[in-house]
Each structure stands twice: as C-alpha cells, then as structure tokens.
Amino acid sequence: MSELLSTLSPLEQEVAQLIIDTLNLEDVKVQDIAPEQPLFGDGLGLDSIDALELALELTQRYGVQLRSDDSETVRVFASLRALSGHIEKHRTK
Q1: End-to-end distance of the chain based on CA atoms, in angstroms?
Q2: For 40, what's the count of Cα atoms within 13 Å in the CB-facing half-sphere?
Q3: Which of 1, 64, 79, 92 has its CA 20 to 30 A from that of 57?
Q4: Alpha-carbon distance values, 47 to 7, 10, 39, 43 (Å)
Q5: Residue range(s) defining the domain that contains residue 54
Q6: How far apart are CA 60 and CA 62, in angstroms?
Q7: Contact 93, 61 (CB under 8 A)
Q8: CA–CA distance from 61 to each of 1, 27, 48, 88 (Å)?
Q9: What single DSSP character describes residue 1?
Q10: How many domains are there within the chain?
Q11: DSSP secondary-structure letter at 46?
C-alpha cells in the first residue's frame, strides 16, 4: 500500500474510486489523488462537465444534493477531502 493511500480515509478511497469510475479516468489510480489536491484546473484537471456527471452520481449513490447555483458547491468540489467531508455530513444513503 502506498503512503498516500494510507493517508486516505475509507470514504476518501471510495469517493476517489467513484471519481475514477464515473469519469472514466483510465490512467488514474486511487493513490494518484492526493486528499488536498484540487480536483479542477491544475490539480486533477476536471472541468464543468465532469462536475455535472459527478454531482449526478453522488446524488444517486449517496443522496447528496449539489446545485450549480449554490456558492458552497465550489468549496465542496475543491478537493477529495472536501468532497468526502461533505458527503459524510449530508449523505442520506
């Protein structure tokens, strides 16, 4: 197990795998996503279409509602750790 993987909580590992699977990131492994690495831009390189796909999957999987017009959404999608923390607090499934 890599050092980075051991720093991820079980939920962070699960969400990282969900990001990889949902967005078909074939060249990315869970251990490649640092918990505080930005998911968009210079970080993982996701874009707004990826955010929509991911938000839909998060709603289906965890019952978490994310709205594009909510200013909090940018913070939620800032990193794997931020996203996982939001899911942990707001999940209904």
Answers
A1: 29
A2: 15
A3: 1
A4: 26, 25, 9, 11
A5: 3-90
A6: 6
A7: yes
A8: 26, 23, 20, 12
A9: -
A10: 1
A11: B
- Model confidence pLDDT, tens digit, residues 47-87: 989 999 999 999 999 999 888 778 888 899 999 999 999 99
Confidence (pTM): 0.89
Provide the residue type at 65 as one letter.
Q
Domain with residue 49: its CATH number is: 1.10.1200.10
Say whether pLDDT at 3 is over 70.
no
Contact 77, 39 (CB under 8 A): yes
Taking the C-alpha atoms of residue 63 and residue 75, their distance in angstroms, rounded to an integer, is: 19
Token pair in block for residue 62:
């965890």
pLDDT digits (tens, 9 = 90+) for 13-48: 999 999 999 999 999 999 999 999 999 988 899 998
Specify whether the CB–CB gap between 31 and 2 falls below 8 A. yes
Q: Tokens 């990315």 — which residue?
A: 28
Q: What residues pair up with 38 in beta bridges, in sequence order? A: 79
